[in-house]
Each structure stands twice: as C-alpha cells, then as structure tokens.
Amino acid sequence: MVLFEQVRKVYEDGTVAVDNLDLEIAKGEIAVLIGPSGCGKTTSLKMVNRLEALTSGTITVDGRNINDVDPVKLRRNIGYVVQEVALMPHMSVAENIGTVPRLLGWDHKRISKRVDELLALAKLEPGKYRYRFPEQLSGGQKQRIGVLRALAVDPELILMDEPFGALDPISRENLQNELLDLQKVVKKTIIFVTHDMDEALRMADKVVIMRQGRIEQMGSPDEIQENPKNDFIRGFIGEDRLAQISPDSPVEPLIQEPLLRVKPSVSAAEVLDLMEDEGCETAQVIDSDDRWKGMAMLGLLKRAARKGGAVTNGVRVDRKLFSEDATIRDAAEMLSDQDIPIPVVDEHGSFIGVVSSAGMAKLTISRLTRKGKGGKA
Ligand SMILES: Nc1ncnc2c1ncn2[C@@H]1O[C@H](COP(=O)(O)OP(=O)(O)O)[C@@H](O)[C@H]1O
Ligand SMILES: [Mg+2]
Fold first, then answer.
1. Does ligand 1 come within 6 angstroms of the Cβ of 23?
2. 135: CA distance to ligand 2 center in Å?
3. Most buried residue, 164, 279, 323, 346, by most Cβ within 10 Å?
4. Whose Cα sits closest to atom 6 in ligand 1?
C-alpha cells in the first residue's frame, strides 16, 4: 500500500532527517514509527502527503508515485491526525468533520449523514455532539473528532503523528482501544508515529524503530520484544519489559559485548597483560571474519605463555551456546555450574556476544524491582 524506496530528506540547513529509508506497509496494516526525538518520524510521515518534499528516492501509495499526484488531491485522499488536532474553533463538530467532504463538493444531506455515521462509530451520540464547539469538548473528545475528521471521506490511508501524545494516560489508553476497535471495522492502512513504546506495542502490526533517520529494527511487537537487536533497542524497549521474560525465552536479551576481544594471531603473553589491564579472566578470540575461535582462560593461557605460544593454545571451545535455540534457563544452568562468561555463537560459528552472571543479575534485579514504565524518548 505504501512503499518507501531509498527515501532521503536533507533540510536546507544540511540536517539529514531521513537517510535512505526503505519501508513497505501492507494494506490494512498499522505500522508504528517509533524512536527518540529527532530521529525523523514526523519528516517521514510528512513526505507521504507531500507536506515535505523528498530530497531523493520515491514513495508510492497504492502503486502511484506521490510526485505524480497533485498535492492537494493527494492530501484529500490521505487522512492526517496530529497531536493537538487543529479543530476550527468557530466551527461546530459537524462542520469540522465535514471539512474535506465540503471541499469535495458533497451535498449537505450526504455530509450530515456521514457526520452522524462517524459520530456513532466513535460512540458519540450525534444528537448531543453534532452542534458542539471545540471549546465544549474535553481533550480526549477533541482527539476523537480529529480522528473522525480524518476518516470523513473514507481514505484508504491515515497518517497519525503522536495523535494521543497530549492526553492523560487514562484518556490515552481509552483512545488507543477505541482506535483498535474502529480499525476492526474500517480496516485502514495506518502509519502511526509515537515515542511511547507501550503505545507502539499495543497498536502496531509492525513496529519500525528508527534512529538518526534510519531503521534500526523492524518487526511485529513480539519479534521486537523477543529479539531486540542491540543495546539501543533493549534500552528503548525498557528494562521493565525485560522483567516479563520467562526462563524459556531466548537468551538474546542477555547477550552483551565481552570485556575483551582478541585476534587469534596475538600471543598468549600479550593477552595475559590485556586481561590484567581489564581485570578479567577470560577473553574471546575472534578472527577477522567474526568467527569465534574459543575463549581464552587465565589458567590455560599462563601455560601457553610459558611455552611462548599464541592465544589459541590457551582457549576452551566446548563452553558455548547457540543463539538460535539457547534459552535463559540454559544460560542460568551453565552459570550456576561455573561462574564465567558464556560465549554465544550463531549456527555458522560467528561470534554474537557473551552471557555473564552480571547480565543475569541485571535481569533478576529488574524482575524483582519491576521498575515503573515511562517515556523512553
Ligand atoms: N524544517 C526543518 N528544517 C531543518 N531541520 C529540520 C526541520 N524539521 C525537522 N528538522 C530536523 O530533522 C530531524 C528530524 O526531525 P523530525 O522528523 O521532526 O523528528 P521526530 O519527529 O522523530 O522527532 C531533526 O534533527 C530535526 O531537528
Ligand atoms: Mg515528531
């Protein structure tokens, strides 16, 4: 339905807001763009309805390059909801919702019918709300009207930029649930921007985590939570979510960078010095193709050093986990048997990282304290 291909946006002052973005959003899907402030979410959204021009690349909506569509026509066919919905203060709810239908020349009767239909869809009694003015509405009601206005002419695609960002947590959750209910009926394609991970995980079919104009990781809410790709994603998901992990979950969230990585050609004696500097008793031996050659251990290494050998003469290769199938329980059992880091490799023997008792302790602490949620932006 919406396809971004190598989309790039450089503002006049040289800011690279969006950096070669490739993204496909299927019909009827809710894609949530999330990431820290300034990572390019709003810019990505505004390029879809041509409120911002692309610097390079293409965006197609329903197979048509947006640059081939008149911007005014394009915008009438794409719903747009922003944080502080700019409802016209001097217009009633009905007039606000009817804005685009009026521009499209619908007759009065058809507009009224559509307004009442939409109000009913949002469980706002038409007789009661039709003639109200924005100042007579709560914040949550204004946002509901903003959403209905975007739906008025039944566009296939809706863009929402932090639509519930200004609401209190209870109204926000109500509106999220209402939107999900509404979506079951209207089945629109929705691109939704937020900086709230709870909101993203609740709303999204597809979560797109952005960082500095690029996609850092993308997947279903489950995929993202079960396999956060790196520390940035883990930090963004939040420690509180790590608390929900069970012993049978994949070991991935616990994987860390080892304190020491060395090349196989380095001598055992040199590695002993490095270990002393770092204050650690193990080092991971990794070749230039990222292949894991073993874990150097203090005792073995001392013996190898006396013989003047390379680090590879002082390694253990039997202690390891495979990233594909290792669970947290596997790691815990190995650590309880021997409290030294466990290297994690993939099926091709490439090094991924280590699991240590420190990482395990962090998980335990977050489980026991159940740190509160909060904006992670
Ligand atoms: N009109 C503009 N001129 C110059 N830089 C801009 C403009 N709008 C946004 N930016 C910059 O582009 C980057 C992305 O901004 P934006 O898309 O608004 O991010 P987000 O919505 O993720 O917070 C930021 O560095 C921001 O400062
Ligand atoms: Mg923004």
1. no
2. 25
3. 164
4. 11
Q: Which atom of ligand 1 is nearest to the CA of 18?
A: 14
Contacting residues for 50 by C-beta, under 8 A, at least 6 apart = 66, 67, 71, 74, 75
Q: Is 38 in the pocket of ligand 1 (CB under 6 A)?
A: yes
For domain 253-367, the question of CATH label 3.30.565.10 is answered with no
Ligand 1 centroid to 16 CA: how many Å? 9
Q: Which ligand is nearest to the CA of 377?
A: 1
Query: Ligand 1: which of 4, 7, 11 to mutate, judged by most atoms within 8 Å of the beta carbon?
Result: 11
Counting ligands in written order, the one closest to the CA of 41 is 1
61: which residues sit within 8 A by CB, 6+ positions away?
1, 2, 48, 69, 74, 78, 157
Protein residue closest via CA to atom 16 of ligand 1:
40
Fold identical between 2-240 and 253-367? no
Q: What residue spans define the domains of the chain?
A: 2-240, 253-367
pTM score of the predicted model: 0.66
CB-based contacts of 111, cutoff 8 Å, min separation 6 = 94, 98, 101, 102
Would you give per-residue pLDDT tens digits along the chain (377 residues)?
A: 999 999 999 999 999 999 999 999 999 999 999 998 899 999 999 999 999 999 999 999 999 999 999 999 999 899 999 987 779 999 999 999 999 999 999 999 999 999 999 999 888 999 999 999 999 988 888 988 999 999 999 899 999 999 988 887 777 888 899 899 889 988 999 999 998 888 999 999 999 999 999 999 999 998 998 888 998 898 888 754 555 677 888 898 788 889 999 999 999 999 999 999 989 999 999 999 999 999 999 999 999 999 999 999 999 999 999 999 999 999 999 999 999 999 999 999 999 999 999 888 877 776 665 443 333 33
Please name the residues in contact with 164: beta carbons below 8 A apart, sequence gap of 6 or more: 143, 171, 172, 175, 176, 199
> For the domain 2-240, what is the CATH code?
3.40.50.300
